[in-house]
Write a structure and sequence with these properties.
By secondary structure, this protein is α+β, with helices and mostly antiparallel strands. It is 41% helix and 24% strand. It contains 6 helices and 7 strands, in the order αβααββαββααββ. The chain is globular and about 45 Å long.
Length: 191
């Protein structure tokens, strides 16, 4: 019975995130998305995202390797919004991983900038799709990617959240080789 409890819990988490995405997207469209910025330990947020996604990883047969920067700094951030952005990127990586079910989640830090990277070794993204990835409801025309469901809001929300943090989100990808999504935020030392 424990196994089924886990599966149900995992599905509830996933559906909860989808509903939150829709609600937050509506707020975003109306300009009503509110952020509360406080000095935030980004490593702790990344650890939380890793923990939150554990059910999904286990259910999907994924291994996710976590490595946190030892010299982690604080960032002026909304921890819940950052968590939402990160779980969306991780869910996206899982969706497009194909047969390669290993994901790397890592943080790196220099004095001015704190970066969070999510790397998969999956289907990769066509160069022509990259500029459109963060548009709401955008669907790739590539056959492999078309097969995957979803409401197409996750990455649009990621972009909105990162923009609100005056950060940047960058994608490095090649078809068949996988993708790396990087969120870069200014550290408090760097502002």
């Amino acid at each position: 019975g424990r196994k089924y409890v886990g599966i149900i819990q995992g599905e509830c988490d996933r559906l909860g995130r989808m509903i939150n995405n829709i609600l937050d997207f509506t707020k975003m469209e109306c300009g009503m998305m509110q952020y509360t910025f406080t000095p935030t330990d980004v490593n702790a947020v990344v650890q939380r995202a890793y923990d939150v996604m554990q059910y999904q990883f286990v259910l999907g047969g994924f291994s996710c390797e976590l490595s946190l920067a030892e010299n982690g700094r604080t960032v002026n951030a909304d921890a819940d919004a950052l968590l939402e952005a990160l779980t969306n990127i991780l869910a996206n990586a899982m969706k497009y991983s194909g047969g390669a079910r290993d994901i790397h989640l890592r943080t790196t830090c220099d004095n001015a900038e704190f970066s969070i990277e999510v790397e998969d070794h999956g289907l990769g993204i066509d160069t022509s799709d990259i500029p459109h990835l963060f548009e709401p409801f955008y669907r790739s025309h590539s056959g492999d990617v078309q097969k995957h469901g979803g409401i197409g809001l996750g990455l649009a929300l990621v972009k909105h959240i990162v923009d609100a943090h005056r950060g940047r989100v960058h994608v490095h990808s090649a078809p068949g080789k996988g993708s790396t999504f990087t969120i870069s935020l200014k550290t408090q030392e760097g502002t």
